[in-house]
Amino acid sequence: MLNIALEREVEGDLLLGDMGQGLGLRPGVVDGAISISAVQWLCNADKASHEPRLRLKAFFGSLYRCLARGARAVFQIYPESVAQRELILGAAMRAGFAGGVVVDYPHSSKSRKEFLVLTCGPPSISSEAPKGKVGDMESCSDDESSGDEENRTVCISDRHRPRKKQKITKKGKGREWVLKKKEQMRRKGCAVPPDTKYTARKRKARF
């Protein structure tokens, strides 16, 4: 990617480094940060010396220092599990960031995308995470945000799917129904016990 950027003579400086070791930038010099499918790789231990929690701490800590106050950082991430998402989000929150995870098209397996949207500084109205897309012209409402551990500021409209209809069990048959069935069996010539006062009587839980 850096070689292609050099060939195209892009504006700005290029830097090669391991973000798990922190960003070597001066404090407060960055106005915004964008990352696509990179942060989740810090959760993998490619070497014996790699500790995901420490690498995430080093990255978000250095990013928080080099961002200007009020600057925003947006990361498109592909966490393998809920635990991995919580690990990334927890490291960002402990570094001092405000924000959360936004999910676009939560119902689609192909179009679903997760974004970690962070603001450098304490939580405020301007630091609230944007709404995730759920359709062509739709977005999650404010009522569909959750504060639980699994999806803290995630639009979780995919978790509000209608429940499956529960099967309605038939109630116990009455005495008239039982007598009618016994009469039908007698007409067919089957051996049927005689009718008594105990016929179709419901037994108690214990004798």
From TrEMBL:
Q: What is this protein called?
A: 18S rRNA (Guanine-N(7))-methyltransferase RID2
Species for this entry:
Citrus sinensis
Q: What is the lineage of its organism?
A: Eukaryota, Viridiplantae, Streptophyta, Embryophyta, Tracheophyta
